[in-house]
Amino acid sequence: MSALVSAEDLVAEGLDGLVVVDVQWNLTSAAGPPGRDLYTAGHLPGAHHVDLDAELAGPPGPGGRHPLPTAHAVQEAMRRCGVDAGSRVVVYDQGPSYAAARAWWVLRHFGLADVRVLDGGLTAWRAAGGPVTTEVPPPGDGTFEAAVDDSAGALLDADEAAKVARDGILLDARAPERFRGETEPIDPVAGHIPGAVNAPTTDNAGADGRFLAADQLRELFSRMGVRAGQRVGVYCGSGVTAAHEVLALHEAGVDAGLYVGSWSDWITDPTRPVATG
């Protein structure tokens, strides 16, 4: 079943009975304002803001720039949003759905079953005539209890990612020049995990930020070498855009594991090999 909801369908459906979670976010100040500022400027009615850096990731360090958050951090964030065990949740960001996909993956990993991503985010919502507000709702009093759900998708560490690169297919969701090691604007070491295949997640969406249709995604991943029954893993710089690729694979009918620590974790151990080109 698709994890996406179109803006047009959500406008028609209405927001009653849903918990709407705003995860607008930018990786750097050069990319745009902080997520909280974007939320303050405008968001879906009733939406609560969740901070990707503080609540959907742990502190940066040996596990990478956006390691897995604790269950407690996710639980408290969801309770503040008013989430219960059976809540129907819609997550969105400002448009490219990178942060929204990270939220989708993290929330499912910690046991929230019904999570959809607003395809195209706030930009698509506005284009569909959806209302936008600056009113901040009061904190919710949800009862959600976070607990790891292994059936929601594989969580890979560095050793498992290396094994997938050898025995299955490991996709690198970063831009081609970062994959090849020609440039590295964020992390201190350039290159990629040996055996990985470059599959920029920007290719998974159109110019409007919406995901390609499922049949187009299947064709795209087939060209990358993804085959039925094959073990698939994804990484990026820090586990955000890789979640976007995992979501794209999900839409194409492919289960994929996420190396949450990604490249920023891989390079913390100098004994791990680095490939370029």
Automatic annotation (TrEMBL):
Pfam families: Rhodanese. Keywords: Repeat, Transferase. GO terms for molecular function: thiosulfate-cyanide sulfurtransferase activity. CDD domains: TST_Repeat_1 (cd01448), TST_Repeat_2 (cd01449). InterPro entries: Rhodanese-like_dom, Rhodanese-like_dom_sf, Thiosulphate_STrfase_CS, TST/MPST-like. Residues 14-134, 164-275 form the Rhodanese domain. Coiled coil: none annotated. This is Sulfurtransferase.
